[in-house]
Amino acid sequence: MSSIDRRTELYDELRYKRQRLNRLLPSTLNPPFVLLSPMLILFAVFLAFPIFFTLVLSFFVYQGVSAEPLLGINLGLVYITIPQVLDLQFVGLQHFERMLSDSVLHQSLFNTVYLFAVLIPTMVIIPLGLAIALNSALIRFRNTFRSLLLIPTAANTIAYSVVFVAIVAEGGLADSLFVLIGIDPIAWLQNGFWSRNLIAFMSVWRWTGYNMIIFLAGLQTISGSLYEAAEIDGATRLQKFRYITIPQLRPVLLFIIVTSTISIFKKFAEPQILISSGAPLEETRTIVYYIYQVAFQNLELGYGSALTVLLVVIVSVISLMQFRVGD
């Protein structure tokens, strides 16, 4: 028997044993499932269970657990404690009925929707214009400008919020510049309108570079032959932008709009920093900040969970509408 025949025989034997082992093992122990099991476990523990637990808590009055455990079990090197639930009472849909008359919730939703209405057009138009400009071969030092515009994206949210508060504080850099050019200083942190718009301005400063890079990547995938054919047909720049650029960028536009929507409805750090610095609470508080107050300051975890469910429903409905329009 030649060495080639011997290797072929060994290969067939190993393949037979592997097939037999796969038949004997349950389907859950097959290699693909085994390789995915760590990620599936992490998903179940840190995502699926919290979502389910939040949904369940929205139907209960729940104030957390006591600092003193209900039961302690000493296992030698390990000491296991069973927490004592402070107050757990089923209330059905009362939390959702409470939302209808909760004026603080209504104001928080208004503030969040205001940011949504201001930021979505701004976070699309400005980055798209910058991307078109930096995609042109006529612009020198394009890579330098791209890098500079991306720097804010790497900034820590708390850090840049504190810096902006210092700039617009009474007697700060903004006031000094206004006085220098003969304009009365603006009470950024004392006026609710300006506080809301300051949150919007910080968000634009933070995410313009990121959205610009996404748009730039989309622009560079558009075939130049489309523009050449349109130019031969006598199309103007506006017509080429309307009938070539926008349709080709539709998936990118949808991505930017959906991710920006989620980011806006999750606003927490910027309002928190402004409120702690003296900004009006009613005009600056977002829905996520209100959930934080209800759940972790007032310890109304049941109502906080119901508000979280409401937020998820709102964002899901808006995102589905955006997908429907985008298609």
UniProtKB/TrEMBL annotation:
<dbReference type="InterPro" id="IPR035906">
    <property type="entry name" value="MetI-like_sf"/>
</dbReference>
<keyword id="KW-1003">Cell membrane</keyword>
<keyword id="KW-1133">Transmembrane helix</keyword>
<keyword id="KW-0812">Transmembrane</keyword>
<feature type="transmembrane region" description="Helical">
    <location>
        <begin position="301"/>
        <end position="321"/>
    </location>
</feature>
<dbReference type="Pfam" id="PF00528">
    <property type="entry name" value="BPD_transp_1"/>
</dbReference>
<dbReference type="InterPro" id="IPR051393">
    <property type="entry name" value="ABC_transporter_permease"/>
</dbReference>
<keyword id="KW-0472">Membrane</keyword>
<protein>
    <submittedName>
        <fullName>Binding-protein-dependent transporters inner membrane component</fullName>
    </submittedName>
</protein>
<dbReference type="InterPro" id="IPR000515">
    <property type="entry name" value="MetI-like"/>
</dbReference>
<feature type="transmembrane region" description="Helical">
    <location>
        <begin position="251"/>
        <end position="269"/>
    </location>
</feature>
<feature type="transmembrane region" description="Helical">
    <location>
        <begin position="33"/>
        <end position="61"/>
    </location>
</feature>
<feature type="domain" description="ABC transmembrane type-1">
    <location>
        <begin position="109"/>
        <end position="322"/>
    </location>
</feature>
<feature type="transmembrane region" description="Helical">
    <location>
        <begin position="210"/>
        <end position="230"/>
    </location>
</feature>
<dbReference type="GO" id="GO:0055085">
    <property type="term" value="P:transmembrane transport"/>
</dbReference>
<dbReference type="GO" id="GO:0005886">
    <property type="term" value="C:plasma membrane"/>
</dbReference>
<feature type="transmembrane region" description="Helical">
    <location>
        <begin position="147"/>
        <end position="169"/>
    </location>
</feature>
<comment type="similarity">
    <text>Belongs to the binding-protein-dependent transport system permease family.</text>
</comment>
<feature type="transmembrane region" description="Helical">
    <location>
        <begin position="113"/>
        <end position="135"/>
    </location>
</feature>
<feature type="transmembrane region" description="Helical">
    <location>
        <begin position="73"/>
        <end position="93"/>
    </location>
</feature>
<keyword id="KW-0813">Transport</keyword>
